[in-house]
Amino acid sequence: MYFNIKSILWNHGFKEKESYKNIYIHLYEAFKKAILNKALGSNIKLPPSRILAKDLDISRSTVLKAYNLLVLEKYVKTVKGSGYYVLSSKDKKIYQKLNSNATTGKYPKLSKRSKAFRKNIYLSSNNSLSKGIAFRPGLPPLDIFPVSKWGGLITNYWRNVRPSELSYSNTIGLECLRKNISTYLKVYRNINCNADQIIITSGSLHSLYLISNSLINKGDEVVIENPTYPRAYDLLNSLNAKIEPTAIDEEGICIAKTTSKNPKFIYTTPSNQYPLGIKMSLNRRCELLEWAREKNAFIIEDDYNHEFSNWENPISSVYSLNNEERVIYLGTFNKLLHPSLRLGYMIVPYYLIDTVKAIYEQSSRFVPPSTQKTMSQFIEKDYLNKHLRNVIAVSKERKEIFTTHFDNFFEGQIQLDNSNTGLHLIGKVKNNHSDELLSETLSQNNIIAHPLSNYFVGSQKQNGLVMGYCSVNNKVIKENIYKMYKVYSDSQKNIPL
Ligand SMILES: Cc1ncc(COP(=O)(O)O)c(C=O)c1O
Whose CA is nearest to atom 7 of ligand 1? Predict the structure, then answer.
């Protein structure tokens, strides 16, 4: 036993026997309270994760997640080669943090809904974002974005802007951009839609937020793929939807296996199943439409990176196969251009437009017209087309470099699945190794690789690393694969055979 940690945690609200859903959050909360109450004083070393895991009869990755949260929130620091220490209150940041949290009891309780999102702090904290971008999944080649072209267009916008354009703008977006997007979709996706059905948003997640809030009441059934995009799951969970995770086979979601009687919608990624990368077969797309028709449900088609996944082997979108406004199509420029752009769009059935608009007006109101106008010009002047071709060529080259180097170093110890046509590759990790632990160890060495198991809902999971391969240049790819291999080899020494 490492000092009296068990009773300290117990006294601060951690009940190990209870079956918590996210144990690490409860563990983190108990540690936080203990630190704030000074039961764990400055510079105290926390028990090694392995020992605490054993004492509490939980997994080591759970302890590491809790420790990581404490580090991110500056309650604890890591000392390389030594362990985790409670930060001294002399440290300015923790001092401010302690003072601002010491009065937590005086404030109203947070909503249950906010709890569904809390685990995402872990994914997107400033600390983790500052760790670099190799091999963060979902990023395009950021270094080839035509900054000067974009800069020229935006300067031009501000040079010519009229005072009236500085006022409140149309919630659903500028007409010029909506028209250009409908042309773009016709050319690249063979999608026919009216510009007045297109709503400009800040991205696919924002679109999903608006749609879900338009449709879901507590207890309403929704179907999702398993594995899925974790933020989509958390969003639906926060709305208290009754979620049915459905398995994927080599043709896409096994829609025939769903049991939901009265689903509001299915959320799916047919072009490039997220994160497994499977392309839904034409047969399955037709089955899906049939199923939705029968159930009177909507299909939310998240075509988040169709530019990549459909380049060499295009297959009709579910939207284009449908003729009765049953599909809500989500698109984004945050993947093709860069995530800091915050610009996406959706094609919405007429039935939903006013509702979505009302919810939108009540929250973020509209995307800045300067961004919309610049994007519109970017499409009109054919810059988007040129950039798309560059991005495809560079991604292809980087995929080659990544896979060659990865396979040379790892020699099958982590097996790459090359079939993914999106922005990431999956490396299969042996079943007796925890992908969460490996991801955590890599992160401590400034390499990002998300654990595949985190994308699964329920206890049946696959182990793997989800790695973006194209956001950084060839030299950085090579250096980081070497570093990754070293970290991996060192970590193997501690794993029992
Ligand atoms: C499947 C999927 N859909 C949507 C998104 C969100 O995209 P956006 O940045 O446009 O909100 C992501 C981001 O990673 C994603 O992986």
Answer: 204
